[in-house]
Amino acid sequence: xxxxxxxxxxxxxxxxxxxxxxxxxxxxxxxxxxxxxxxxxxxxxxxxxxxxxxxxxxxxxxxxxxxxxxxxxxxxxxxxxxxxxxxxxxxxxxxxxxxxxxxxxxxxxxxxxxxxxxxxxxxxxxxxxxxxxxxxxxxxxxxxxxxxxxxxxxxxxxxxxxxxxxxxxxxxxxxxxxxxxxxxxxxxxxxxxxxxxxxxxxxxxxxxxxxxxxxxxxxxxxxxxxxxxxxxxxxxxx
Length: 238
What we know:
The protein is built from seven helices and seven strands. The two termini are 34 Å apart. 39% of the residues lie in helices and 15% in strands. It has a seven-stranded parallel beta sheet, with helices on both faces.
């Protein structure tokens, strides 16, 4: 069945968000690819899928921008079936220890990585509620957001923001637990070759995006399984 899918953080060709867009388009779905600034890679992809790829300009750090994008999407399609919150940002000091970390840079990272995801869910919730199936919300988290498995002394902003995103996911899972129309998960996607610095990563984004697409479909209506999972569908410690 054709789905209406919205994905944030889709502008970089090598990254997971862009490859999610590719996979869902190849599967025959209509995709809203959300970006903050123009993406040459997405524009090229739209030439191949002019009828099923809609590029939405949306700054998830700004409530008015998200609301405007939701209003635009609602004019084009009747509902949403899947929302993937993939966009993230970090501070310039993310690799620094506390002594050298500019703590004033943490709030902007939270505003995008955590509050931004909630902005998107809130703005597009009416469209998700109109889905003809169980609408699924997927928050792309990270092992860095696990308190139980934490081993780093850096990534202060990123780890805290992802841990907060996990809490937001669990809170909304409680909200939707008796609602057959909506489900929500947070997922540790694994280490991927998304840039030159990750050249040794074991996962290739295009292939990996398809594996995760299949995982999402398998978990779409499953509210009894774990909420924070790995890309293999296994529970991950909070």
